[in-house]
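Ligand: flavin-adenine dinucleotide. Inputs:
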Amino acid sequence: MNNMKKIAEKELYAVKTENGIWREELCLKKAVHMLLLYLKTIEIPAEKEIIVAGGRGIKEKKDFRTLQSLADVLGGTMGVSRPLVDEGWFPRELQIGINGKRVEPGLYVAVGISGAFQHMAAVKEADYIIVMNTDRNAPFFERADFGIVGDYKKILPFLLWEMEKKTPRTGGFLEYIKKK
Ligand SMILES: Cc1cc2nc3c(=O)[nH]c(=O)nc-3n(C[C@H](O)[C@H](O)[C@H](O)COP(=O)(O)OP(=O)(O)OC[C@H]3O[C@@H](n4cnc5c(N)ncnc54)[C@H](O)[C@@H]3O)c2cc1C
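Predicted complex:
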């Protein structure tokens, strides 16, 4: 875990903040803390779902365990982009997009998804969109309310570590930070 902290203090990230302004060269620790602060400010209607979705940027199927953990901590469910269904990794029911499900979540977290219009069209009614992608020019960042440019393999473990430190209870994270 000390290694994780060291990496988090060294690696540099760019963040798109909620007012559309980019902050450059933040260390991962700072970028993740900004995301946690952002989560504290947003109001997700109780009746709306939270979806954590992964795309072709997720290199190994086992990495989806980390996305599932994030969905669990947020009290949400998982979604995927089409290539992962075409690849046979996931059933069609999980596909988000014009040929899959159209969704209106309170919060949509897109990890390793470029933001092709066939995908984005199906999430355009989301209240809030958070994007994590290594490519600053990925189209999804244009629609993102908050975004981190970087590798999910580094962002997600640190984010989860920080979240789980704050609340060990699955699904209770958003309620918990709002009370703090
Ligand atoms: C008729 C038609 C219907 C379609 N219907 C759908 C549909 O219903 N749903 C759908 O999703 N698509 C659909 N598509 C496909 C769509 O056009 C895109 O090809 C698809 O959405 C791309 O999926 P992706 O973003 O996961 O993959 P990619 O476009 O390959 O993007 C992967 C992203 O991951 C990022 N990345 C790479 N490594 C990392 C890392 N380590 N950490 C973080 N990010 C990383 C890359 O920068 C890239 O932006 C349809 C296409 C057609 C023609």
